């Protein structure tokens, strides 16, 4: 199994680990310390070696921060984790705060005293975040102290070793462009912006640029590393040499100068001593990177990671691969749905059993490299936890009479998938059908949207919520995230969310996943992946429009649809979608599954 179901959280660790950290802070003359979920790459995917927030508090979510002062502490999470954090963390030691509504800066402002010293690990906090933290400290008469090492590492006795996953070359037949072409494009961007070099901290940016993939973190083929790219000449790639076979090393050596991660700071210092104008992304680069450059005489140019946008706009080869991966994945998922319909109503199936079976169907394709994230298999109240991770402790039987939510994805060499379906198990109540249909209406609104160039995800986000808002309901996560090409299932800079400020462009892949989660009851989410495309001309229209091509082809559960709540256009969309699913996926599944699919996609 690519997924394990061990219980990784231990709320009882909070008190003793907080005591160990406070003792170490006292030894260093510090009055407090901040512990983010991030590692030095500021990515969502963190190896066990860098899971300091989990070690300290027990929290296993993908975003959050703990603040520890001498006489108080707290943990900060966003709306996705408000339920989970209370189950995983000792609230007496680390009371939970909302990361957005009650940010750590407000909490610190109310508690820091003049003369106190607040420590941070300089590689774990971005340039942008440190500016806010410095202001809070200055206003309180306190001092922000940036550290070159992390106090937690001094007291974490059984800390795992850093990962040394093997790196592989990603064939140009899958990437669509050679690494030399990509490097030349980034160097052209640097020259246009009059930058001498840029620093890349995101492993997926590095993987895309050099056409490599790695195995340092679970479910995402990332090679943890840093890189610098000059406007002219060879880039430098800072990566643990143990990850490179002789053939991979030889291929990379033709493109880039190879060095160990421990040499990264010296490389930055060399850039600084040369008086270089160095581009960094202030939202992604740790302040320690900036300090190394400016401290040695360099000049910072703050701009978005120049790889993010080219990586997000998939070329035709990548899009062809994504479509193929989604056809393969849909056939596997339909096989799972057929099986699920036979088993779930018996009342003996549990969350782990469903997740294991779905992975089994994907493995049967012969092409599965990994799942793209831990499957969210949520029965009853667990479905109401947006980013629930099933463990052997939390595992529930799937109840008859409630919807079941399953959010999952796969990593194939030609594409990354991500799909959520909410499934009826037995008879559904009128309220359940109403909630499902309101979510479906929001999903259809995104799928059918037409919008001019320059439109951002924030402008589209309301479309997914408006029917829920009319009913006094909402959901506490973004409507959609970007998706990589055999890379991260959560890719920026594009997103459909209140914070989605990047214009959507043809070739981008985004998820479309509105939801609704009545706490303690069940969860509903419907997710397809969409490619941004040039839309057909609209009769009488004056401007060219963009739209979406849906590449996820798995039926919605008609047993949960309250048909009278749908408009004629919405019914036509659903019937058309299901007709496409029948035509594309029917030939890829067995005879029994095909009969099931015919019924599951019948016109309404």
The number of domains is 3
Q: What is the CATH first-level class name of the largest domain?
A: Alpha Beta
Strand content: 15-25%
Q: What's the architecture of the largest domain in CATH terms? A: Alpha-Beta Complex
Radius of gyration over C-alpha positions, nearest whole angstrom: 25 Å
CATH superfamily of the largest domain: Creatinase/methionine aminopeptidase superfamily
Strand adjacency order, main sheet: 4-3-2-1-5-6
What fold name goes in the CATH topology slot of the largest domain? Creatine Amidinohydrolase
Q: Could you give the count of β-strands?
A: 28
Mind describing the biggest β-sheet? Answer: 6 strands, mixed
* Class computed from helices, strands and strand pairing: alpha+beta
The portion of residues assigned to helices is 25-40%
Low-pLDDT windows of residues: none
Helix count?
19
Mean pLDDT, nearest integer?
97
Structure explained in plain terms:
The strands form eight sheets. The chain has a six-stranded mixed beta sheet with strand order 4-3-2-1-5-6. By secondary structure, the protein is α+β, with helices and mostly antiparallel strands. The model has no long low-confidence stretch (mean pLDDT about 95). Helix 10 links the parallel strand 11 and strand 12. It folds into three domains: about 140 residues, Creatine Amidinohydrolase, Chain A, domain 1, CATH 3.40.350; about 140 residues, Creatinase/prolidase N-terminal domain (Creatine Amidinohydrolase, Chain A, domain 1); about 290 residues, Creatinase/methionine aminopeptidase superfamily (Creatine Amidinohydrolase), CATH 3.90.230.10.
